Model the fold of this input.
Amino acid sequence: NHGAGAGASPCRHSRTQLIGLPVNPRRVKEELSGSRRYYEYRERCLFCDLIHQEIRDGSRIIARHNGFVAIAPFASRFPFEIWVLPEDHSCDFYRSRDSAGLGRMMKTVLKKLSVGLNDPPYNFMIHTAPFRRITSTGHWRTVEHDYHWHIEIMPRLTRMAGFEWGSGFYINPTPPEDAAGFLRDTEV
Done:
């Protein structure tokens, strides 16, 4: 959480919360099962395909270095939404081999947000594979192959209203290509 609009306390430094849950939230389950279905269909990771496609196209790339890529995802839910993904496949955040590279990428992206958008409030979440015990009937048997950990950063530039809360659909007035271009060109 950064800034009062994102639920942060009035303290002037960055802070995060680490929350462990005894269940997988619905949104996480949907992401995991969608990744698994894609893997069953294509025999490869959805996120790896997404990374390769975004790099090839280039219009939604914000930054790329140190083995990480930052993108404004296609059909972003929020203006200037950013995903940071490792270029090498890995389902578990805790197995990331290059924490210094991730730190440099996060610093770059968060500085671009701060400079380019006048230090907006934001939240970020780490999406990683759930704790699992692999058994012959285990629910997440293929997660090592079909899921890709990533970080989602959501600046709080607009407010969700009744339509978003009631439908689960989001209204984003900023095309991701425009957001990526603006942040890519922001000097830090």
Notes: The beta strands are 61-65, 68-71, 82-86, 122-127, 150-155. The longest helix spans residues 99-116.
